[in-house]
Write a structure and sequence with these properties.
Elements lengths: L4 H16 L2 H8 L7 H18 L5 H16 L8 H17 L1 H27 L1
Length: 130
């Protein structure tokens, strides 16, 4: 994915929104599967996935899923068998295509993903307090 610095940064934010709202990664981080540096590993994954897309043109679905699965296995000792990898791949690929086609639309997708995460956290914390 050859891109300007601005579109590359925007794609990185899209990857961050996808990965940081992915329940499997959040469970792995929250439960210490990545060790004491689990959150740093999750942040690092954003950079690595973004770079993977940047360095490889015309990625196939299985390539992206295998790459993310390998990262999760190596860094969090977690095997993904809940069927969520195709969704993570699809959202990440849409972000990549969005950067290429429609930057404004991608900004809205990122904002929506982050708002959904904030709302979910609010409801989770609210139910903990009741």
């Amino acid at each position: 994915m050859a891109a300007s610095a601005a579109s590359r940064e925007l794609f990185k934010e899209g990857v961050r929104a996808v990965l940081h709202t992915w329940p499997v990664l959040q469970i792995a981080v929250d439960n210490g599967f990545g060790g004491v540096y689990g959150q740093q590993k999750a942040d690092w994954m954003v950079d690595v996935v973004q770079q993977y897309f940047h360095d490889n043109a015309d990625l196939q679905q299985s390539e992206v899923e295998d790459f993310i699965a390998e990262l999760m296995d190596q860094e969090f000792d977690t095997v993904i068998d809940d069927g969520s990898l195709p969704q993570v791949n699809e959202k990440t690929t849409l972000n990549c295509e969005g950067v290429r086609a429609d930057v404004q639309k991608l900004k809205l997708l990122i904002t929506y993903s982050l708002l959904r995460e904030s709302t979910a956290c609010y409801h989770l914390h609210k139910s903990d307090g009741d």
